[in-house]
Amino acid sequence: MSTIEIDELRCKGCGLCTITCPKGLIELSDKINNLGYTPAKFDASKGKCTGCALCAEICPDVAIKVFNE
Amino acid sequence: MQQVFTRPASLKDVQTHFCPGCHHGTVHRLTAEALDEFDLRKKTIGVASIGCSVFLYSYFNIDVVESPHGRAPAVATGVKRARPDSFVFTYQGDGDLAAIGTAEIIHAANRGEDITVIFVNNTTYGMTGGQMAPTTLVGQKTSTSPYGRNLEKEGAPVRVTELLSNLDGVAFAARVAVNNPRNLMDAKRQIKKAFRYQVEKKGFSFVEVLAACPTNWGMSPIEANERVGGEMCDYFKLGVYKNTENL
Fold it and tell me: What angle do CA B70, B71, B72 make, to 5 degrees?
């Protein structure tokens, strides 16, 4: 079981992780963060995260942490 | 749970001023990872340039010298000659390196100075408001070319990596992009290779990174990312142009 943690205060909502996740588990939130952007959010209910870390690799703001069991 | 992706130690845990979707943040991280890989953090002196890359000193956990516009390779030459044991790299944008700093980069490369240059090419002057740069593509609209760059009046975009790879002093020259995972992994490899050239004292190494500037291109981050993989990669071909030692 793998998972990711998105730092919502650091995320600028560019959405690059949403097009990079091979499983399509990340989408932009409707809420606005302290920077005025809509941060990305991880939705584990849509499928299984494989811990490939491509979302973290593509993130320009290094706002994603990836955990593997 | 084991954390498999962490922020490199050479990169400070701070918010950057970059716009959403700007690739500078990605290139910063790849550079910091390469510094960590060779354990260079304590012996590195970075040379920052002018442009959005100027705040390098706030984001990297290393010593940094700030240089005048375009003069980073000249400053790096001095730093490296005064302290030959330190690791010296410059980080420059295309407005800085390819326009005002053309003389400095060509002569530093031709002398074969033992430094590494990271060149971020986003085809525009990012910080000052999206003016036309020497690398702006033909037809691209900018604030100083509102009808698009005109080939007859302004000439064709400068391919800096090809230009420098013809100089005898250059040991390593490559062009990479960070728009998708495949290109990003290759960019990581080439930046590490460029650093290895300096670590092993093999001469001047140069990496051009194609990057997006969504704000000044007037695009969304995802559209800008696609443009890098589309018309930018079509004109600025990715690849290793020179690899003298085959490291």
Answer: 100
